[in-house]
Amino acid sequence: MKQRIDLNVEARQPGKGTSRSLRSERKVPAVVYGAGENMSVWINEGDVVRYNVRAYENALFNLKSAEAKANGRVVLIKEVNVHPVSRRPQHVDFFALDLSKTVRVNVEIRLEGKPAGLSDGGFLNVITRQVEVECLPTAIPEFIVADVSGLGVGDTLHVSDLKVAEGVRIVTGAEQTLATVSILEEEAAAPAADAAAPAAAAAPAAAAPAAAKK
Question: What is the reported pLDDT for 188?
């Protein structure tokens, strides 16, 4: 079962004044919505900073609180708003889960291996690093691995090439491109330019007889 992380929160009164007061004490106002009753809570700023990173993007948090309505609820961190200058967290949205119902989340794609086409002068062009999946909250994958070692020049990795665990359904369209192995346009254009040069040089010579006939 997917591990859950205990997270301490406390109930608060809604309102801008309360929010400003909390931030001055290094506490971040937050809301809990989704399954169950919506609630206004606060969380320690240090906890927000710690968990507002990619590694915890789809982590399940088990709320701990003296407030019975919040205590024990399982949530995802849905959004963290930060100050544009100080970068301090200003507000958090928690999405409360019903563990018996599926959810849709974005999951990271991790590319592994060295594409075969790199030895032929190609380069790996990554188009997207996430796909949307649907599954039970306890089955949310931390990431999805995609092997790109078999890609040659001109080959493409699609969503349809991904393999996921049973119970996980990829929502993103199967035709969506994840990565390709390509040749740089400058390198591809060079042979064409070299081939055109002799033809251009021969043009005046071909025109000379025609001029002599006049």
Answer: 52
Question: If we measure between CA atoms, which residue out of 5, 167, 132 comes closest to residue 77?
Answer: 5
Number of Cβ atoms within 10 Å of the Cβ of 127: 12
* Residues in Cβ contact with 184 at an 8 Å cutoff, skipping those fewer than 6 apart: 123
Which percentage of the chain shows pLDDT scores above 70?
A: 86
CA angle 95, 46, 108 (to 5 degrees): 50
pLDDT > 60? residue 197: no
pLDDT tens sequence across 53-93: 988 999 999 999 999 999 999 999 999 999 999 999 999 99
Answer whether 11's CB lies under 8 Å from 73's CB.
Answer: no
CA–CA gap between residue 144 and residue 164 (Å, rounded)? 7
Q: What is the pTM of this model?
A: 0.78
| 116: Cβ contacts below 8 Å, ≥ 6 apart | 149, 150, 151, 152
Total residues belonging to the chain: 214
Residue 211: the pLDDT is 45
Q: CA gyration radius for the chain?
A: 28
- CATH code for the part of the protein at 103-186: 2.170.120.20
Domain map (residue ranges) of the chain: 4-96, 103-186
User: Which class would CATH give 4-96?
Assistant: mainly beta
| Distance separating alpha carbons of residues 46 and 176, to the nearest angstrom | 38
Q: Which residue, among 166, 123, 175, has the nearest Cα to 148 in the 3D structure? A: 123
CA–CA separation, 146 and 123 (whole Å): 17
